[in-house]
């Protein structure tokens, strides 16, 4: 029996992204794993061809095709049900894992007796060029508990954890746009030990579509609701979360929030490239774009001082 189960769901990622993602797992320095790939788009003949090509080369790949589109949450839960490993390693079909990712995360988790960990991501664009790098992530358990009141700080594509945690929490819940954040909060409220490895383990691809997703404001509202309940030491009710979002969501706020997100990513790139005058200009524009996004930035700030 293998020790690690890598779980990845695919849908309509570009060929080059999918190949880079698969190869980054197959080329890991740690070898004792199964690679569960679930295609959530049965009509995607290109993905079928590509994944079957790799399956014929490397028998560690276990390839499954959903009969119909069921969404990421259900696909991940399906992968968890199929997994035979002691540990679960998450992977997205357009990211790139650093070659020693599994080896280093497994060692860090075991040595420190953690239940679930994440790590640092380097943000890249469609061409694989660096946009900006996250410099540091919180590792102290108690600080993480405080910081989680403001933002998700265990990046979902970097997760590595014990399968028993996923089993005991019955996998992901259908909390729209926040299934990973919801899982993290439930894990902490159930007493599991969570941390981050403070090294870059993943290249996270930010495409133009991911930066400008129309549901970003909706995601922000869901996060605001579930963190409020977390601060009250409660697990959020899914129906009440949906009701909250429906009450506060509107087109005008969502549009301003989306524009602010685009400007925020420009500001981060300004800092990375040390374009300080441009940073001042872009930061000024960002300030007057969306009140809700300023709250999101405040949440980032609170994460920083609490971690």
Automatic annotation (TrEMBL):
This protein's UniProt keywords: Glycosyltransferase, Transferase
Gene3D superfamilies registered for this protein in UniProt: Spore Coat Polysaccharide Biosynthesis Protein SpsA, Chain A
EC number: 2.4.1.122
Domain of life: Bacteria
Primary enzyme class: transferase
Pfam family membership, one: Glycos_transf_2
GO molecular function: glycoprotein-N-acetylgalactosamine 3-beta-galactosyltransferase activity
InterPro entries linked: Glyco_trans_2-like (IPR001173), Nucleotide-diphossugar_trans (IPR029044)
Annotated protein name in UniProt: O-antigen biosynthesis glycosyltransferase WbnJ
Species per Swiss-Prot/TrEMBL record: Thomasclavelia cocleata
Lineage of the organism: Bacteria, Bacillati, Bacillota, Erysipelotrichia, Erysipelotrichales
């Amino acid at each position: 029996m293998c020790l690690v189960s890598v779980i990845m769901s695919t849908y309509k990622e570009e060929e080059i992204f999918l190949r880079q993602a698969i190869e980054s797992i197959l080329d890991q320095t740690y070898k004792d794993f199964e690679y569960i790939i679930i295609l959530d788009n049965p009509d995607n003949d290109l993905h079928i061809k590509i994944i079957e090509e790799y399956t014929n080369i490397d028998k560690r790949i276990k390839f499954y095709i959903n009969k119909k589109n069921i969404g990421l949450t259900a696909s991940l839960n399906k992968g968890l049900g199929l997994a035979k490993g002691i540990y679960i390693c998450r992977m997205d079909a357009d990211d790139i894992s650093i070659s020693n990712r599994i080896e280093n995360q497994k060692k860090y988790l075991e040595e420190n007796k953690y239940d679930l960990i994440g790590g640092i991501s380097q943000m890249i664009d469609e061409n694989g060029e660096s946009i900006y790098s996250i410099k540091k992530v919180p590792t102290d358990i108690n600080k993480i508990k405080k910081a989680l009141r403001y933002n998700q700080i265990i990046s979902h594509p970097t997760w590595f954890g014990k399968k028993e945690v996923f089993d005991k929490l019955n996998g992901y819940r259908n909390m729209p746009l926040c299934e990973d954040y919801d899982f993290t909060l439930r894990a902490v409220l159930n007493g599991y030990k969570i941390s981050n490895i403070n090294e870059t383990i993943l290249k996270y691809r930010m495409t133009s579509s991911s930066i400008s997703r129309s549901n970003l404001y909706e995601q922000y509202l869901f996060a605001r609701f579930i963190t409020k309940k977390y601060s009250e030491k409660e697990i959020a009710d899914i129906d009440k979360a949906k009701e909250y979002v429906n009450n506060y969501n509107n087109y005008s706020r969502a549009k301003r929030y989306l524009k602010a997100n685009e400007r925020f990513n420009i500001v981060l790139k300004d800092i990375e490239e040390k374009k300080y005058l441009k940073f001042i200009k872009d930061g000024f524009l960002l300030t007057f774009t969306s009140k809700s996004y300023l709250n999101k930035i405040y949440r980032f700030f609170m994460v920083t001082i609490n971690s």
